[in-house]
Amino acid sequence: MNFKQWLEAYRIDKEKITDFAQDMKSYYHNSDFTKSGTFQNEPIPSDFNLQSKGLFAGENLKDIIPYAVPRNTSWILAHKDSKRPTLYLLKKDQKEIKNYKPWLTKFDDKNFKKLQSGELFTQKPNSPVRQEKIRNSINFIKQWMNIQFVDDLDYVANYLNSENIPFDSEGYF
Question: How many domains does the chain fold into?
Answer without folding.
Answer: 1
